[in-house]
Amino acid sequence: MRLFLQLLFRNRLAGFGAVVLGVIVVLAVLTPILPLHPPNETNTANRFLRPLSEGHWLGTDHLGRDLMSRLMWGTRLSLAVGFAAALFAGLAGAAIGVLAGYFGGRIDNVTMRGIDMLMAFPYILLALAIVAVLGPGLMNALIAVAVVNIPFFARNIRGVTAGIVHREFVDAARLSGMGNARILWSEVLPNVVPVIVIAMSTTIGWMILETAGLSFLGLGSQPPQADLGSMLGEARSALITAPHTSIVPGAMILLIVMSVNLLGDGVRDALDPRLRSGAPSRPEATTRVERATAPEATESGLLRLDRLETQFRIGKRVYRAVNGVSLNLSPGECVGLIGESGSGKSVTALSVMGLVASPPGVITGGAVRLDGQDLIGAPYEMLRALRGRRVAYIFQDPLSTLHPLYRIGDQLAEAITAHQPVGRAAARARAVRLLEDVRIPNPAARARAFPHELSGGMRQRVGIAMALANDPDIIIADEPTTALDVTVQAQVLALLDELRRSRGLAILFITHDFGVVSQLCDRVAVMYGGRVVEEGPTTDLLAAPAHPYTRRLIACVPELGGGRRRLAAIPGLPPAVDDLPPGCAFAPRCERAQDACRAGEIALAGKVRKVRCLFPETTP
Ligand code: ADP
Ligand code: MG
């Protein structure tokens, strides 16, 4: 709740709306005890008094009634009717929508066709027809406005519910033996309530306007009772001679609707968890850079990361996800980047092409040089030309990176035409050849398949094919085999290895599995808490790990036929990167750690074999 209010008021306009609406609501609630003239007391001697007249602050209307008093009572009524109509329409519409979406089938068909019939009539005409049948009056206007708004809620909520019902957690609830009522209450409703609140908060303004409209036409509140719409309606004939009688209720309607809408937008943004970290703003095209100076260029290589630092800034917290990572990738080389989940591998990889989402991501230091050219802070157009063309990515879960509604052949062709001036037919033909290159059987037919029609291993092959589409020099593979079973993993690794040799690709291979590294990588860098703690040729490093963390990570890999031994998990948890200890981040979990380890920065020492440890297991 506190977080919600904090988020709400961080949005200035929403805060403004909340304050204005709050003042209006408080005044409306207090109206009966305020020292006002009776709202319906006529005094024809005092007709059309101007504002700021003696005893009548806002003047009087055509019957000499005090406008201030009528405004307050009218606001009270209009607010009450608007909120009641929104509540009624929201609850009724949501109930219909949830039931239709949850049960589907015939219930869905019958209710939704009923709703469609309501929607087939023009909105205001339907409201007028309902009032015509029920007779004029404020209560009937309320019912009319509520009824015509039910379809909006019902359709919205049905869509959301239908999307939730087929999700795994609902299946899980069903499997655990819950009944429909329990599932609706504890699984579906909590997911739907924010949507209902959001829909309501953004439609209250409308409903107030619509009721005012009906009253304006004389179908809502009946004389002498004042609401904002009927005040406007009565003032219409004196619009020129006594404009204040129209302006006063008009301005109030404007204030209410504007503040309700501003507040409604704020509520929507604050309730949407996806907007939490970055407030309501679109991620920037490339990662934001706040770097004092770039480090001096040393030797050149294909891809050199030089003391790269990437942080996430969320509120006052700073998550130091990458803390000065240096890596070197030569043509045709495969470098492994290994570490526990959360050690900063993905953020390192994404920083290379400026793909970390900003906000909250910021690159605060270091350089990434491709052929000697610094990419940090490079213009978006330049990065875009390089993305996929010279540096391509393969991600962990191909099902979520492939577009579900396009055929894979078309997606591959699109990747090709993004960088190369070839026609559609040529791109298609290349796509089929790419599928063949990654050993997909019957590629011409498979190119017409949708992602969901392929198995996990095949989808990952498509991901690899897409990365190869523009003959890149470098492929950054972020745990590409983690979602696959071991046999498919072996096939995919063999494929990558072969492609690397035949095309001279450099690969940065991210994984948490030393078994995978040993099959594929020439060199390996071990990451912990956003830092490289050890680096070296794979065989050397595997044979004699120097950092205690590396040794324990290697001990986690089971070995087939390696005899009976306990798999050694590493005790404790990886460090929280918003609160890194001084010195070695692994010290709290390390049995060799001494006071010196916790004192201060420890350098990555060594030339070919590097280790960031004061008391290494072996001296490389
Ligand atoms: P991994 O090594 O598993 O790939 P990541 O590079 O994804 O780890 O994450 C490194 C650290 O950065 C983690 O501690 C994670 O909590 C943090 N992090 C990643 N993305 C965000 C984000 N959008 N906001 C805040 N922290 C993040
Ligand atoms: Mg990752």
Automatic annotation (TrEMBL):
<dbReference type="InterPro" id="IPR000515">
    <property type="entry name" value="MetI-like"/>
</dbReference>
<dbReference type="InterPro" id="IPR003439">
    <property type="entry name" value="ABC_transporter-like_ATP-bd"/>
</dbReference>
<dbReference type="GO" id="GO:0005886">
    <property type="term" value="C:plasma membrane"/>
</dbReference>
<dbReference type="GO" id="GO:0055085">
    <property type="term" value="P:transmembrane transport"/>
</dbReference>
<keyword id="KW-1133">Transmembrane helix</keyword>
<feature type="transmembrane region" description="Helical">
    <location>
        <begin position="115"/>
        <end position="135"/>
    </location>
</feature>
<dbReference type="InterPro" id="IPR035906">
    <property type="entry name" value="MetI-like_sf"/>
</dbReference>
<feature type="region of interest" description="Disordered">
    <location>
        <begin position="274"/>
        <end position="294"/>
    </location>
</feature>
<dbReference type="Pfam" id="PF00005">
    <property type="entry name" value="ABC_tran"/>
</dbReference>
<dbReference type="InterPro" id="IPR013563">
    <property type="entry name" value="Oligopep_ABC_C"/>
</dbReference>
<dbReference type="InterPro" id="IPR025966">
    <property type="entry name" value="OppC_N"/>
</dbReference>
<dbReference type="InterPro" id="IPR003593">
    <property type="entry name" value="AAA+_ATPase"/>
</dbReference>
<feature type="domain" description="ABC transmembrane type-1">
    <location>
        <begin position="75"/>
        <end position="264"/>
    </location>
</feature>
<feature type="transmembrane region" description="Helical">
    <location>
        <begin position="188"/>
        <end position="209"/>
    </location>
</feature>
<feature type="domain" description="ABC transporter">
    <location>
        <begin position="303"/>
        <end position="554"/>
    </location>
</feature>
<dbReference type="Pfam" id="PF12911">
    <property type="entry name" value="OppC_N"/>
</dbReference>
<dbReference type="InterPro" id="IPR017871">
    <property type="entry name" value="ABC_transporter-like_CS"/>
</dbReference>
<protein>
    <submittedName>
        <fullName>Peptide/nickel transport system permease protein</fullName>
    </submittedName>
</protein>
<dbReference type="InterPro" id="IPR027417">
    <property type="entry name" value="P-loop_NTPase"/>
</dbReference>
<feature type="transmembrane region" description="Helical">
    <location>
        <begin position="77"/>
        <end position="103"/>
    </location>
</feature>
<dbReference type="GO" id="GO:0015833">
    <property type="term" value="P:peptide transport"/>
</dbReference>
<dbReference type="Pfam" id="PF00528">
    <property type="entry name" value="BPD_transp_1"/>
</dbReference>
<keyword id="KW-0812">Transmembrane</keyword>
<feature type="transmembrane region" description="Helical">
    <location>
        <begin position="246"/>
        <end position="264"/>
    </location>
</feature>
<keyword id="KW-0472">Membrane</keyword>
<dbReference type="GO" id="GO:0005524">
    <property type="term" value="F:ATP binding"/>
</dbReference>
<keyword id="KW-1003">Cell membrane</keyword>
<keyword id="KW-0547">Nucleotide-binding</keyword>
<feature type="transmembrane region" description="Helical">
    <location>
        <begin position="12"/>
        <end position="34"/>
    </location>
</feature>
<dbReference type="Pfam" id="PF08352">
    <property type="entry name" value="oligo_HPY"/>
</dbReference>
<comment type="similarity">
    <text>Belongs to the ABC transporter superfamily.</text>
</comment>
<comment type="similarity">
    <text>Belongs to the binding-protein-dependent transport system permease family.</text>
</comment>
<keyword id="KW-0067">ATP-binding</keyword>
<dbReference type="InterPro" id="IPR050388">
    <property type="entry name" value="ABC_Ni/Peptide_Import"/>
</dbReference>
<dbReference type="GO" id="GO:0016887">
    <property type="term" value="F:ATP hydrolysis activity"/>
</dbReference>
<keyword id="KW-0813">Transport</keyword>
